[in-house]
Amino acid sequence: MNNPITALVIMGVAGCGKTCVSQALCQLSGATAIEGDTFHPAANIQKMSAGIPLNDDDRAGWLDSLCDELRRVDATGERPVLTCSALKHSYRERLRSALPGLGFVFLELTPEVAADRVSHRPGHFMPSTLIDSQFATLESPVGEPLTLALDASSHSIDELARQAYVWWVAHGLKLAS
To answer: What GO cellular component is one of the record's annotations (predicted)?
Structure first.
């Protein structure tokens, strides 16, 4: 195997289930979850809370922080699983540059399902009015190396985590002995 996957990013638009899938996958694999939303600066959260989409400049420092955290967790010998929308190819490349062997699990769903899920998510800063802007920004990672696409609207969280786990094991996840 040329490029074993040493860490994962669970990616997709708001409402696709990134956090839930990451938590379930970490339970299966013993990996360490990194919640990307917790690295947003206050200005980004205020902007999104006001219904204003983030732009590349808004995301730059956030992505730098995520890269730093991926490297930090990896350096401890743990296997990181990062939740991050990673909507653009350039964002994914930035994350890949931080950690060789970074794989991506793309949780796909329709704008309608995403909007419905986000509208029923209590206490989160991302309003459902931003779903259209997320889909407008999304550059599909399908076909990129070390990327698995999963249908997030027709599988349970546990099934999505199981599929990601099986794929990760097949691509280099070292199981605890």
So the answer is: cytoplasm
